[in-house]
Specification:
heterodimer, A: about 325 residues, mainly alpha, two-stranded antiparallel ribbon, B: about 475 residues, about 65% helix, about 5% strand
């Protein structure tokens, strides 16, 4: 049992890292997605400034998720990554362009419009690729022995593309509510309007993905719709409804912090829903977390460090956000 | 056309890692130099140090940004192209890479924000601490990555069961036999690389008669560092070589261009090794010197390539040259250190001089030496991925198609050309513009524009660095 407790701890750590990534890079990717539609060039400066001190830090969670998977479930790393070769390539390239756009944009003049485009397209495509990876992961990966046995285009299905689009809307919602919190004036007004429209789109898309997923795999359908489960799990969709309503009200009342909190809550519930659908499977359809876990000596060696390091990281993350707290304004400055 | 996914994956790996290594090579030393400047600013309160620190921090941020994005590519590359490797060594190397992320990346990323944008938002001491933590993060990062890399050269503390490694002793894994030597050699190389860039830029300003105060501080400090480290590096390189001789004799034979080996082996200065003929062409050699260097004994026996099966030999046609490029640059660095001592004693360090032109020309030397050194050690590990245990050919992803790798390779080449072309252009613009002129009196005035300055390194107060259309 000790071995399985360790594995449970690792599921929690990797799951937490991926979730932190989705939330934190989610809102700054969302800002990139909204970027070209912003009311003015000054608004775009403010949007970028609102995440400039923290974006690379947010992205570090992606590396933690990846490295955590490699360390604690090496076989999952060895099977999932080759299966996603092309969408991951797209994601990496998009993240590169988007990352350097932060550095290059402000001082560029003649080429500034190019870095604006790089920031938007990089954010959009990175998000789309992440959604596609999620979708193709859910639909299952062909495995033979300890290797991925499918083709380089297995990931390409209507479902995975649909998930890509859904995630774009989701991140845009997170980004717009972040901006409501951190900005004022015309930009904030614009975000209130956009967030409301995005909320409707997101709810429709999440409902579609939720209804589509059980059709991919009978065991997922059984998990949700068999008799005691449907009652036990019904709080999840009910909570989604409650949070969506809360978010709508908060936007109506012009609340500044609540919309971001509710939007994060919606992401947490969707993530929880995915976890319920899959558990204890790590690589759909057949490989469980128990089968994929690294041996105990590897898990223990890492866990000792993580027990101190992850809380420390959270403390200085909080400090870093605290240092850059407050509204970001762009009333004067660059032209 | 039949595309070989193994060969293409190797080319892609070599390409992305060669690009990646350039940035940490520079930023590790630079972060420490910035921390030193911040310490002097904190102690003396002289505006000169602060403006110098801010200048190099801008350079640091761009290099660091490019290092981070090319580093993410590396992490994913392990899984996408080398999935067998991931499965075989995951139990051992996964935790080392994970420790790098949690002890180094987070530290760097969190405190870089404060270092860059937080000067007016945190107390001076905290800002200095941020600089120290960023520097610490870069060094810790090197520690873990070099430990993982060294383990693939000298695997220890783990046993192979059912085709996968299982750890028996973590201490032996982390501090595997080649790790201390590789770490010392690489850290010194990184500090030397930074030293030569700072010295070159400072000399450039002196030649142009600009930013003279900044340039003198930079020149003096960087040359002092070079003078200590250049001879030390030759000593460390020798130790590292002896360690390699003990654990990877075939690599040494290929580096030295020795086919026969044996006692009183000559030091080959020039040759064109030929794998087909198993011999060297146009060889120029000094008798017995190689034995002396490698075994510290004229009659010492050194390995020859012919004593290894053909399938287990690394390629001397490449290694012979990459090794000589690295050593040659080491000698140039030593010469620079000696000339500097003479100039300093004569009191002519800062007068416009041929020496400054030499320093400008030496700026890329550290980067070239690091690439040549890594090519030597990594190509020298072939045909193994885990030395003597797992072959590179057995590490590649089985399902991978040549077409997919060719696609990614072309995309990476195109994207890196654009991104790093632009990055280099902006770096050169920043270097030409130079540090901001801060006066001690200016710093008495509290910052008023807080929150209105664009919050990116290229966006410090001042003009656009790119000419308008």
């Amino acid at each position: 049992m000790e071995g399985s407790l360790l594995t449970l701890a690792w599921v929690a750590i990797v799951g937490f890292a991926v979730f932190m990534y989705v939330l934190m890079d989610g809102f700054d990717l969302g800002i990139g997605i909204l970027y070209p539609f912003a009311p003015s060039e000054e608004a775009r400066d403010v949007m970028m400034n609102s995440v400039a001190p923290v974006w690379d830090f947010n992205e570090t969670w992606l590396i933690l998720g990846g490295a955590g998977l490699f360390a604690a479930f090496p076989i999952a790393y060895a099977i999932v990554l080759p299966a996603m070769y092309l969408p991951l390539l797209l994601m990496l390239i998009a993240l590169i362009f988007r990352g350097v756009a932060f550095e290059f944009r402000f001082k560029a003049r003649s080429s500034r419009h190019l870095w604006n485009k790089a920031f938007f397209l990089g954010s959009l495509l990175a998000t789309f690729a992440q959604g596609v990876v999620l979708g193709s992961f859910l639909q299952g990966i062909e495995v033979e022995g300890r290797n991925f046995a499918g083709t380089m285009l297995d990931w390409l299905t209507p479902f995975s593309l649909f998930c890509g689009v859904a995630l774009i809307a989701g991140y845009a919602l997170l980004g717009s509510t972040w901006l409501i919190w951190r900005t004022i004036g015309i930009l904030q007004d614009w975000c209130f309007r956009v967030a409301r429209r995005l909320l409707i789109v997101v709810l429709v898309l999440v409902a579609a993905v939720s209804l589509w997923t059980p059709f991919l795999d009978a065991s997922i359908a059984t998990r949700w719709f068999s008799v005691p489960n449907i009652l036990l799990l019904s709080p999840v969709p009910l909570m989604v409804g409650f949070l969506a309503f809360g978010l709508w009200r908060a936007l109506d009342e012009g609340r500044e912090v609540l919309p971001f909190a509710f939007a994060m809550g919606l992401f947490a519930l969707s993530y929880l829903g995915l976890a319920i659908s899959l558990w204890p499977v790590l690589i759909p359809p057949g490989i469980t977390v128990w089968q994929a876990a690294a041996p105990p000596e590897t898990q223990v060696f890492l866990l000792i460090g993580m027990a101190f390091l992850i809380p420390t990281i959270l403390v200085y993350t909080a400090y870093s956000y605290w240092v850059f707290r407050g509204k970001v304004t762009g009333a004067i400055g660059y032209h | 056309m039949d595309l070989d996914p193994l060969l293409l994956s190797r080319i892609q790996f070599a390409f992305v890692i060669s690009f990646h290594i350039l940035f940490p090579s520079f930023t590790v030393g630079l972060a420490c130099w910035i921390a030193v400047l911040e310490a002097r600013w904190l102690m003396t309160g002289k505006a000169l140090y602060r403006s110098l620190s801010e200048f190099w921090t801008r350079i640091f941020a761009i290099s660091f940004g490019m290092g981070v994005v090319s580093g993410i590519v590396m992490t994913y590359q392990f899984g996408t192209n080398w999935s067998r490797w991931s499965d075989i060594v995951g139990n051992v190397l996964g935790p080392l890479i994970q420790y790098e992320v949690v002890t180094a990346f987070f530290l760097e990323a969190a405190f870089l924000g404060i270092l860059l944008f937080g000067r007016d938002r945190v107390p001076r001491g905290v800002h200095f601490l941020a600089a120290v933590l960023v520097a610490t993060g870069t060094v810790i990062s090197s520690f873990w990555i070099l430990s993982a890399n060294s383990w693939m050269h000298t695997p220890a503390g783990a046993e192979l069961r059912d085709g996968r490694f299982f750890v028996t002793d973590w201490w032996a894994v982390v501090f595997n036999p080649s790790f201390p030597y590789r770490l010392a050699h690489m850290l010194t190389a990184m500090f030397l690389t930074t030293g030569f860039v700072v010295a070159g830029i400072s000399a450039f300003y002196l030649l142009r008669n600009r930013f003279l105060d900044h340039a003198r501080v930079g020149l003096s400090m960087s040359l002092a560092l070079i003078t200590v480290l250049a001879p030390l590096q030759i000593f460390l390189g020798d130790l590292h070589g002896l360690n390699t001789l003990e654990h990877q004799p075939a690599k040494i034979a290929a580096m030295e261009g020795h086919w026969e080996g044996g006692a009183r082996a000559p030091l080959i200065l020039f040759a064109i090794p030929d794998n087909e003929a198993e011999a060297n062409h146009a060889e120029i050699a000094i008798p017995a010197l190689s034995s002396l260097i490698l075994t510290h004994d004229w009659d010492g026996v050194v390995p020859g390539l012919k004593s290894f099966p053909v399938a287990d030999r690394p390629n001397p046609e490449i290694l012979f040259w990459t090794f000589r490029i690295m050593v040659g640059i080491g000698m140039v660095m030593l010469a620079v250190a000696l000339i500097h001592l003479v100039q300093r004693v004569r009191g002519k360090l800062y007068s416009p001089h041929w020496f400054h032109k030499v320093l400008v020309g030496c700026m890329p030397l550290g980067f070239v030496a690091i690439l040549a050194g890594w090519f030597t050690t990594e190509i020298g590990r072939q045909p193994w991925v885990v030395y003597g245990m797992i072959r590179t050919a057995d590490a590649v992803t089985p399902a991978l198609t040549g077409g997919a790798v060719l696609t990614s390779l072309i995309v990476f080449m195109a994207v890196y050309t654009v991104i790093y072309g632009a990055g280099t252009y902006y770096l050169f613009r920043l270097l030409t513009i130079g540090p901001a002129r801060l006066n001690d009196e200016d710093l008495e005035v509290p910052a008023v524009a807080q929150g209105h300055q664009p919050k990116r390194p290229l966006s410090m107060p001042g003009e656009s660095i790119e000419p308008a259309e």
